[in-house]
Amino acid sequence: MEISQQLRHITYSSLFVALIAAGAFLAIPVGPVPIVLQNMFVLLAGIILGPRWGLACVGIYLLIGACGLPVFSNGKAGIGHIFGPTGGYLLGYLPAVFITGLIAKKWDKKMIATVFALLTGSIIVYSTGVPWLKIVTGMEWSRTLALGMYPFILGDILKIIAATLIVKTIRPYIKL
Amino acid sequence: MTPFIYKTGNSIFHNLDTRYKLVMMCLISIGILKALFPALALISIILITAMLNIGIKPLNSLNHLKYFLILLFFIFLSRAFTTPGEPLFSIFGVSVSSYGIKDGALVSIRFLIIMLLGMIFSHTTKPSSIKSAAEWFLKPVPFIPEKRASLMIGLSIRFLPLIIELSKQVSDAQKARCADNQKNPVKKIARLILPVLKKTFQTADNLALAMESRCFSEDRTDPEFNKSGYEIKSLFLTIILVLILILF
């Protein structure tokens, strides 16, 4: 039976909303800072669903989190979390997923494009998250970077490599 | 169990209309961001009473927020050390001003109270009524199909436990085969995520097929809301509380 493309997009996007939320709980223990997979799923949503549906997916995630469903890291929720110190990373997911999706769509299915898209997406998340953390908490730049960026860089590089492999392997299974 | 998960109950917070509750939560959050110490003490007393009333143990809930508390502690230290002012005492050549300590404490306490507010809301509100309220609020927003958004919220709430269960199964299956001896972190990530993604995509496909074969359409009845009768009074009290928070 032929399934309408829109319905499939809806179920896949809902799946990615759930994956992003579950990503906050899925941690791989490596070194002192465990690798949390949430931002990897955000960027994967952009690459696999494309910019428009990826944006919808992150938008829904932020909406249900702000409305009080426990989907943010460590099962937290509420509009206060978005206004809080780490809210910039969450809001940064919106441009990150859109631009990641756009780059991946432009250079269709090339591995180097996937790497470039993932890298750009990660940089966008930090470029909104770190200044937000600085402004909200009033810390100095050096402290903000030491608290909100340096501990995660190694994990992010590993995640980009892993995500590239995952995209390559999972593409044949996706019927979008 | 995290206290951010809904639990049935019959308190006034459980029975209020979710739409009013959302508006009140936003108003109080804004109020708290502007509040000073006396007002913060007042709102803390109100919130702790509310928590006891609906059955959240305050100390237990702090235990669930421990990572958040560590972050707040760092913010407090950073503010205390860097805010200029008359030095109170100095450690290792860095002077700490009383103004810095006050300022750091104010910022951290505000964030903590907003987090507790979110906890009370999540603990007393059903996910399905949050979904209905979100649909109701999205209705007047142009370019956003509220029925589709509401459907996506419903589906993702359904998918979430499935994914967590599935990833637990995959990780257990791999442990049984000694796959957790793998040291390469990239392989670790890929070997956990690939089976989970493959299986959940199949589930999503099956779901789309099931919905299509049952003639699913976005033309659905609007959600219904139960009112407890205290909505207007509570909203009025909330506005007074927010004014107190901002002015004192």
At a glance:
The complex is a heterodimer of chains A (176) and B (248). Chain A is mainly α. In chain A, 73% of the residues lie in helices and 2% in strands.
Describe the model.
The complex is a heterodimer of chains A (176) and B (248). Chain A is mainly alpha-helical. Chain A has one domain (5-173): Orthogonal Bundle (Arp2/3 complex 21 kDa subunit ARPC3), CATH 1.10.1760.20. Chain A is built from eight helices and two strands. Chain A has a two-stranded antiparallel sheet with strand order 1-2. In chain A, a hairpin with a 6-residue loop joins strand 1 (27-28) and strand 2 (35-36). In chain A, helix 1 (5-23) runs antiparallel to helix 2, helix 2 packs parallel to helix 8 (150-170) and helix 3 runs antiparallel to helix 5. Chain A is globular, with a radius of gyration of 16 Å. The model of chain A has no long low-confidence stretch (mean pLDDT 86). With 248 residues, chain B is mainly α. Chain B folds into two domains: 12-136 and 227-247, no CATH class; 146-213, no CATH class. Chain B has helices at residues 12-15, 18-34, 37-54, 58-64, 66-82, 98-124, 127-138, 146-176, 185-213, 231-247; strands at residues 87-91, 94-97. Chain B has a two-stranded antiparallel sheet with strand order 1-2. In chain B, strand 1 and strand 2 form a beta hairpin. The longest helix of chain B has 31 residues, at 146-176.
